[in-house]
Each structure stands twice: as C-alpha cells, then as structure tokens.
C-alpha cells in the first residue's frame, strides 16, 4: 500500500521503464524553469526541458536521470515522467 505522504513515481523512456517507486520529492527542469513536486501538489502537465530529473526516494536516496523530449504529469500524488530519451545517471 502506498504511503499517504509519498508520491508514486514512474520515469519512462520510449522503449522501457527507467525507474519507478515511492518518493518524497521530485525536481525537474521544464521549458518554464525548474519545478519541485511534493505530495499534495496540484495537478499539472509540463513539457520537460533539457536536463536532469532528481527523485528523492522515501528512504532519502536521490536518483538522478537525464530525460529529454517529453513531459511531466502530476495528478493525485502520482507523477509520470515520459521522455523520448531517459537514462539513469
């Protein structure tokens, strides 16, 4: 069962899932600038800019992925990051 104070996150590229799990914070670069996502964030849909996506897991470990040509979606503490190219750093 998901933690009520956590985000459910999926980072996917065009051909595979790069990372998924529970997180307490996400920082990503969009075309409008850098955005931070915490549990309870309002729903958004944003276009990814060139750069890194940093996911802080519920255990405090930071996972970093390069993600380009895609979007970020947030709804009901579920974050989906879809990119044409994505890979763990």
TrEMBL record:
Q: InterPro entries from the xrefs?
A: ATP_synth_F1_dsu/esu, ATP_synth_F1_dsu/esu_N, ATPsynth_dsu/esu_N
Coarse class of the protein's main subcellular location: membrane
Pfam families xref list: ATP-synt_DE_N
Keywords of this entry:
ATP synthesis, CF(1), Ion transport, Membrane, Transport
Locations listed in the record: Cell membrane
The membrane-topology field of this record reads: Peripheral membrane protein
The Swiss-Prot or TrEMBL record annotates one GO molecular function as: proton-transporting ATP synthase activity, rotational mechanism
Q: Where is the ATP synthase F1 complex delta/epsilon subunit N-terminal domain?
A: 7-86
Q: What Gene Ontology terms describe where this protein resides (cellular component)? A: plasma membrane; proton-transporting ATP synthase complex
Q: Which SUPFAM superfamilies match?
A: Epsilon subunit of F1F0-ATP synthase N-terminal domain
Return the PANTHER family for the record.
ATP SYNTHASE DELTA/EPSILON CHAIN, ATP SYNTHASE EPSILON CHAIN, CHLOROPLASTIC
- Write out the similarity annotation: Belongs to the ATPase epsilon chain family.
Assembly notes: F-type ATPases have 2 components, CF(1) - the catalytic core - and CF(0) - the membrane proton channel. CF(1) has five subunits: alpha(3), beta(3), gamma(1), delta(1), epsilon(1). CF(0) has three main subunits: a, b and c.
**Protein's name in the database:** F0F1 ATP synthase subunit epsilon
Q: Which organism is it from?
A: Glaciihabitans arcticus
